[in-house]
Amino acid sequence: MLTIIILALIAIVVLFAVKNIRMQFITRPVFSFFKKVLPPLSDTEREAMEAGDVWWEGELFRGNPNWNTLHSYGKPTLTAEEKDFIDNQVMTALTMIDDFDIVHNRKDLPPELWEYFKKEGFFALIIPKKFGGKAFSAYANSTIVSKLASRSVSAAVTVMVPNSLGPGELLTHYGTSEQKERWLPALAKGDEIPCFALTGPEAGSDAGAIPDVGIVCRDTFNGEEMLGLKLTWDKRYITLAPVATVLGLAFQMRDPEGLLGDKKNLGITCALIPTDHPGVVIGRRHNPLGMAFMNGTTQGKEVFIPLDWIIGGPEFAGKGWRMLVECLSAGRGISLPALATASGHMATKTTTAYSYVRHQFGMAIGQFEGVQEALARIIANTYQLEAARRLTTTGIDLKVKPSVVTAIAKYHMTELGRSVMNDAMDIQSGKGIQLGPKNYLGHPYMSNPISITVEGANILTRSLMIFGQGATRCHPYVLAEMEAAAMENQHEALEHFDALLMGHMGYATRNAFSALFSALSGSRFGSAPVSGETKQYYKDMSRISSALALMTDLSMLIMGGDLKRKEMLSARMGDVLSQLYLGSATLKLYEDNGRQQDDLPAVRYVMANRLHLAAKALEDTIRNFPSRPVAWLLRGLIFPLGNHFTAPSDKMATDLVGGMLKPGPARDRITFLCPEFEGDKGGIAEVEQAFVAQYACKDIYKKLKKAQRAGELPAKVPNLVLFAKALETGVITADEEQKLQHADKLRLAAINVNDFEAL
């Protein structure tokens, strides 16, 4: 028997070590199989794969994250100029916002706010300074949008669009010198208002299917015959279109007569067109869930423009899709996550305050465990939103274009924002549903599906983009193997594939052993860059990373090109990657905050949830895997002892809420995007002032409760009667009674809602 084993080992060594034998019996058959199962890539998919960069998600996808790399990215900070702008211009803008008036009366921002935004450079945040812009960081851009959104989604969207995907960003990255000189200073000063028309009735998330066309032809412009484009388009959902003076347009460029060369279909192209150009039609306004930001339609039929109106000039004809994919980071990674994070900060600030000042059954509603369960989710999700906002903008500020990361941020952060608003509405109930100047929840709640829908619908972002791009882009071998399979010289292709195959096999074997050993040992022997309570989280995340890498390899091997069409499976594997990214952001925020002890309850809750959801996504994928033998193998390697990653416990929830139902640094760190300012007469200021005043009276209230239990004071009487009785019996002093009366007056103002004449 020993001889047979030794001979078998020798045969295996020879099979893999001797190149000619390996090429004949392993590499060639595998190469042939790989080419058969290779998922076909459309031109737009290939451009999406090639555009942008792989960043931290690459580490998470490969099974062995280098956590020191995560910590090396640094802490996002504001420059002195950015901080000054936020402390002054942004805070001034907040005093000018009356969102109820904007949405229900004006259906637009007031003229003075439009003028202030233009004059103070709110539309120039991303434009380079040489053209009159501010060249602010992604983190500053996000912070500005978030603070505006804490008071008005309509105002925030108006500011975020010129600083997101559109003419300003496209011109900055790709525009010719003449285009930059012509447009960027005017955009920076607000003399020109931009919009970007991408979506149409037949092309939404499938932007590559744009039916709008530009035909290369000769025609007359300004009295001169020249080569140009005749454009026909029909676009909708275009934010700022009703007030735009310059239109960015995406279309399919075609050259049927070969005036530019042999290529007939050049592909998606972007051009910049003044809206007063003959033939440009700015259509009627849409009504996006009642919000007041400008949104509408634009059309044109055979509108002739010169070729040099193509963004980047004629040499950028057909390069529009890549340009758009590379620049989508602003909308997906900055603007929409900023709106979601603002919702979290505002909801945490107001709902913790409201839960303290709103009493039922003789106690603050924040003391009821049912309320605490929802309140814990709000607080934890807000901590997660802030963490993801910071890590994502850090990547963008490092000048990488992490398309997979920004897709993760867009999907998961907007969904977390939706969850936060749902829970806040449930807790504040009647306060949340009665619209009026005092209502701070209604408009963000109503507008939340807008963020879910735009910049790629969330369902398709989850099921097609995150894993679909991540599996190929982030894998250390697959993209290179696909390139080898596409090589024309078959001998060179086979040689290249052989080297990749050996590395890939070693990589897969390591991940299989790592997943199994970590599962059997409870990740105790994994490495972590820190000590203390968060150490185990890093180890558990590494375990899940290796499990994801193993599952990805087996999924690609078994399903090949069919994996693209297994959207439920690929979405779940994308969820694993997403939970790892969100967990990474959480751990980094804890480190960036200086490992504050009062942050730990939030970190515990968030990390328990992230690990639970990641493990559940792995388990659900295994349960639905089309090959049962492979599913059994995956279960044996990933969960040999079962899945022990559980959801956050009740104690985690009560610990988290208990630390947040009081003013303090931990609460300030996840509510600072919802600032207080002098003269704020809205509902946010009311409920916060009531909370602070009520909390300042907590020791006086303890005296009252003690006296009630002793029978010295009546148990169920109106507060003012109770205060008077307590003063009369000497339970409290006159000064204490005045404090109680003042706090109770603020409390009543905070819990009351607006009413109106008959509507």
Stretches with pLDDT under 50, minimum 5 residues: none
Query: Helical proportion?
Result: 55-70%
Q: Could you give the count of β-strands?
A: 9
What structural category characterises the helix and strand content?
alpha+beta
- The chain-level mean pLDDT equals 91
Overall, the morphology is flat
Oligomer: single chain
Radius of gyration (Å): 29 Å
What percentage of the residues does DSSP assign to strands (E)?
A: 5-15%
- Largest sheet descriptor: 7 strands, mixed
Please report the distance between the alpha carbons of the first and last residues: 92 Å
- Helical stretch tally: 31
What's this, in brief?
With 759 residues, the chain is an alpha+beta fold. The protein has helices spanning 2-17, 19-37, 43-50, 56-61, 67-72, 80-95, 99-106, 111-119, 138-149, 153-160, 167-174, 177-189, 320-327, 329-357, 369-397, 403-428, 430-433, 442-453, 458-474, 478-485, 490-521, 535-559, 567-592, 600-623, 628-638, 650-660, 665-669, 683-696, 698-709, 719-728, 734-751, and strands at residues 194-197, 213-221, 224-239, 246-254, 265-274, 281-285, 295-306, 359-360, 363-364. Strands 1, 2, 3, 4, 5, 6 and 7 form a 7-stranded mixed sheet that branches. It has a two-stranded antiparallel sheet with strand order 8-9.
How would you explain this protein's 3D organization?
The protein has 759 residues and is an alpha+beta fold. 59% of the residues lie in helices and 9% in strands. The strands form two sheets. Strands 1, 2, 3, 4, 5, 6 and 7 form a seven-stranded mixed β-sheet that branches. The chain has a two-stranded antiparallel ribbon with strand order 8-9. A hairpin with a 2-residue loop joins strand 2 and strand 3. The mean pLDDT is 91.
